[in-house]
């Protein structure tokens, strides 16, 4: 037997370092060639690092959230004797940074403006259920006293459903709970049983969740935006009754062209309003003291993903009709949620839309996507009593909650811009008039 060191590889595109997002193995695991060792995040992508050789894990070098230089020691393996290309002999002991027992911790995925590209299928998951992997053994429910092993997405779903992961039978490598394990547990009534059992139970303990990867990048980005930008919030009420009638009509009579939500109409309204208010379609370099006003309208659409908030960008929205915009929004949202959005699709927006859909509440104060100078927030559409022509009638109403960089956009300019957007939404036929 011999010890071999697997080094952090050059992931390409000028990358010099990478952050450890999560370990996919623990000390003592026996792995096969090409099994994933860790997820690492660069400023360009999140990727899984595969093992170039089979062996047993001896040491893991680096904590969750730690950044390592390319070429640094990543994992030490005990392998069969022989030289393995690209894998260096281990010349000195490397103490494991993990807690006693080698317990693996999970962490969220990469940053709000960094792509989730390069995430392939876990080679071990391809073998699950086939009975061919010696290290893959099912963990009976409730038998393990250690922290259950699961991906961040599985942990989040279990948390949202009130499911204790230690009761979910695991079939993954080293007792890892897969998405299929959780789905099977829910299908067998585990969610309901967990909810009933936990309804009046006392709960103790604190779970320490490292803020790394995407969640840390989001935190840093929002902190920078709040620190550098003096936000000015403006809320306006919009009557979208006619727009909703038009949208419903188009979806019924033009279904072959695709399904229309509110967002493509809002994007068209923003594009039209920007013609008279170019100041809001800009990026401010406050260090150089230069405002870059863009003629092209690249609209970021804040999108919730399993790993956190991303902002895919609909480029040249000014050149898209509502169906083209709807198709591009759907494509980008799917790519972001699947972790396949490229870096170019997640950067370069000139103004951003944020929406919580049916959960949108009455009003909000959205944080500007630095270095932009404006963001438009969509709130929930409700039927409300309003006065029209001296009579109380029921209309479909929605609030727009917008924020502006007050260094660049004055209150009058912001109010005028939002009034322009409101006018187009309340008279949707004008969206189609040159």
How would you spell out the order of helices and strands? EEEEEEEEEEHEHHHEHHEEEEEEHEEEEH
CATH topology of the largest domain: Chloramphenicol Acetyltransferase
Q: What is the share of helical residues?
A: 10-25%
CATH class division of the largest domain = Alpha Beta
Question: Care to count the β-strands?
Answer: 22
Write out the CATH superfamily name of the largest domain: Chloramphenicol acetyltransferase-like domain
User: What's the mean pLDDT score?
Assistant: 81
The structure class reads: alpha+beta
CATH architecture of the largest domain: 2-Layer Sandwich
Short description:
The protein is built from eight helices and 22 strands.
Textual characterization of the structure:
The protein has 434 residues and is of the alpha+beta class. It has 2 domains: 2-198, RNA polymerase II/Efflux pump adaptor protein, barrel-sandwich hybrid domain (OB fold (Dihydrolipoamide Acetyltransferase, E2P)); 229-432, Chloramphenicol acetyltransferase-like domain (Chloramphenicol Acetyltransferase), CATH 3.30.559.10. Helices cover 24% and strands 25% of the residues. The protein is built from 8 helices and 22 strands. The chain has helices spanning 152-161, 179-187, 190-198, 213-228, 241-253, 262-274, 322-337, 411-426; strands at residues 2-7, 17-23, 30-31, 36-41, 46-50, 55-60, 67-69, 73-79, 88-89, 149-150, 176-177, 231-239, 282-285, 290-293, 299-301, 303-305, 308-310, 313-314, 351-355, 374-378, 382-388, 391-405. The strands form 6 sheets. Strands 12, 15, 18, 19, 20, 21 and 22 form a 7-stranded mixed sheet that branches. Strands 3-6-8-1-9 form a 5-stranded antiparallel sheet, with no helix packed on it. Strands 5-4-2-7 form a 4-stranded antiparallel sheet, with no helix packed on it. A hairpin with a 4-residue loop joins strand 13 and strand 14. Helix 6 (262-274) packs across helix 7 (322-337). The protein is globular and about 85 Å long. Mean pLDDT is 81; it is low at 83-145.
């Amino acid at each position: 037997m011999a010890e071999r060191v697997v080094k952090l590889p050059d992931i390409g595109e000028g990358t010099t370092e990478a952050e450890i997002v999560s370990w996919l193995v623990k000390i003592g695991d026996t792995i096969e060639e090409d099994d994933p060792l860790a997820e690492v995040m660069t400023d360009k992508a999140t990727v899984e690092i595969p093992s170039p050789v089979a062996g047993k894990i001896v040491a893991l070098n680096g904590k969750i959230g730690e950044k390592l230089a390319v070429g640094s020691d990543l994992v030490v393996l005990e392998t069969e004797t022989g030289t393995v290309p690209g894998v260096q002999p281990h010349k000195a002991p490397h103490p494991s940074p993990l807690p006693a027992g080698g317990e693996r911790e999970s962490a969220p995925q990469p940053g709000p403006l960094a792509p989730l590209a390069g995430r392939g299928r876990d080679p071990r998951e391809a073998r699950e259920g086939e009975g061919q992997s010696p290290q893959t053994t099912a963990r009976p429910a409730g038998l393990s006293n250690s922290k259950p092993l699961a991906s961040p997405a599985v942990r989040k779903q279990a948390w949202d459903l009130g499911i204790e992961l230690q009761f979910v039978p695991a079939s993954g490598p080293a007792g890892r709970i897969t998405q299929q394990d959780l789905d099977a547990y829910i299908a067998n009534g585990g969610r309901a049983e967990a909810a009933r059992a936990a309804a009046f139970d006392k709960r103790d303990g604190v779970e320490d969740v490292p803020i790394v990867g995407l969640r840390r990048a989001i935190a840093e980005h929002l902190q920078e935006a709040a620190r550098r930008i003096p936000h000015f919030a403006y809320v306006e009420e919009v009557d979208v009754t006619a727009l909703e009638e038009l949208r419903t009509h188009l979806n019924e009579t033009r279904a072959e062209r695709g399904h229309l939500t509110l967002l493509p109409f809002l994007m068209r309204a923003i594009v039209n309003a920007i013609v008279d208010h170019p100041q809001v379609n800009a990026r401010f370099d406050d260090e150089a003291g230069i405002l870059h006003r863009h003629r092209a309208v690249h609209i970021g659409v804040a999108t919730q993903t399993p790993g956190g908030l991303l902002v895919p960008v609909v480029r040249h929205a000014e050149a898209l009709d509502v169906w083209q915009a709807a198709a591009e929004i759907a494509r980008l949202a799917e790519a972001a949620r699947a972790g396949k959005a490229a870096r170019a699709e997640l950067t370069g927006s000139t103004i951003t839309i944020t929406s919580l859909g049916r959960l949108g509440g009455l009003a909000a104060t959205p944080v500007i996507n630095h270095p932009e100078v404006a963001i438009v927030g969509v709130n929930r559409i409700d039927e409300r009593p309003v006065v029209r022509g001296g009579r109380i009638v029921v209309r479909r109403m929605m609030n727009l909650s917008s924020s502006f960089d007050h260094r660049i956009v004055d209150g009058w300019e912001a109010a005028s811009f939002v009034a322009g957007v409101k006018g187009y939404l309340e008279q949707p036929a004008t969206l189609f008039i040159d």
